[in-house]
Amino acid sequence: FQFVLYMYFLISPFISIPIAAFDSLTRLGVENPKDFIIQNYMKDGGDVVLLNSCCIGSSIQTEVEAAIEETDATNNWVDIEPFLPPSCTHLDTSLLLKQLFKDRKNILLFGSIYVSDNFIHSCYKMFDTVIKDKAKKAWERHKFHTREDIDVAPMRTAGNEKKGKRSRQARQIEYSEPDFRSYVNRDKIKEVLEENLMDSPEQLISGVAEKLERSLQDLFVKEVKAVSDTTSSTIQQRKQHSKVQEKIQGLWNILQLCEKSLRLFSDDVNVQISKHLLRTVCSVMTNTVLVCLLEDNGFKAPCEDEEIDNEERVLLTSKLPRAIKVSVMEVNTSLNGKNISAFFQKFEALCSKDFCEFVMKKVDRKKERQLIFNHQKSILENIRTEREPSMALHLVTIFLFQQYTNTLLDVPGRIIPRVIDVLCSHMKRDDHMKLLQYQKLIVEQMNFIKDRGSSVEIQQSECAAYTQLMELLDELKRIALNFS
Length: 484
Known about the structure:
Elements: H1 2-11, E1 19-21, H2 22-27, H3 33-40, E2 49-50, E3 54-56, H4 58-74, E4 77-79, H5 90-100, E5 108-110, E6 113-115, H6 117-125, H7 128-142, H8 168-171, H9 186-196, H10 202-262, H11 267-279, H12 281-296, H13 310-317, H14 322-334, H15 340-350, H16 365-385, H17 389-405, H18 416-423, H19 429-450, H20 456-483
Helix pairs in contact: 7-10, 9-10, 10-12, 11-12, 12-14, 13-14, 14-15, 16-17, 17-18, 17-19, 17-20, 19-20
């Protein structure tokens, strides 16, 4: 009988015998089917692939290769089972593909289903929106339970008898962050795949879910971290915006109160004080907003806002987008003007919702009184400790002016004599004469300093003037302190 079987293999082209099942050969009396196939066919160069339960001929190999190539070309999947006889197992399918595609490192095979790499990638992309939505929900649920935000509640221990006393052990409580991987498990992945891969076999759905599980969990954790970082960044930006808003609003309030005091001076003095305010308070406000705009547009200012001069401001403004640049340049131009009203108009436009979204509020009566009170208190503290005559006169004059007029005043030293002139109609004559006398002594001392070294007489006069200034310093301060 074996001779008949042997002759049958010899005279029959193997293409007409696509498969030989080992168990069938065993039932026909072949004791070792694999050795029989190797010795009687493969030794002559027969194109046969030995598997676990059978051997496959070239006709089936060709069909399987064609199916795999088409699957790779169409980025799809294919079930190999219909190409193979019922006696083939999943292990046979895996061995067959490994033999046919020896050059490939990884072959994706779920049971009898072959899957192309691009198909897996397309399935992975299905979860982009799903993962992001889940990450946002997970972060919203756990955002108050992170290590940084957790608030350790009061805890009672055996050694704590007082109710509500915070325990040291509570401060040292261990906290483990939520296991975000539990949000993306295999069952939930299968649900999404079933919605997108309708009428696909369960074997394919389960295999793809298992393949994607770890990578999707990693993606989910990454997205949660991204949401956390974005949220933290947004919160930080809001805090920074609020901080800048508070700073600008404070300077804006001071500027509004200073503008009221300008009406009490003549036009020429008004212009000088306005220029001073534009170079100081207004410039700081502009620089603060400029730095904020630069950061919002991805640039970083090379120095603090107080240190940016006009030339540096123009250079930094050129980096901004055109629409913002025009508005900033208009504000910068107003800084070189002679009145504050033009600056108010341009700066308020720059702070609108189109650019910075800063709200410039008009100071109310209650805040105005509080602001003036705090300013006066600060000046009074400086008066008490000041020992330099010219600065003492400056502080006392500003303090008295603000007390009598209920406004704020910020002027350079050269304007102090004009302020003293305005105080003439508000102060007692004796106190006003003391201010004038002190002012005269300071001017004399400054003239002596200019002529220092000219003669011994001038040096003696300088010493006498300085001695007199120091003697009258306490009396000058007393004018302000008595007023308070």
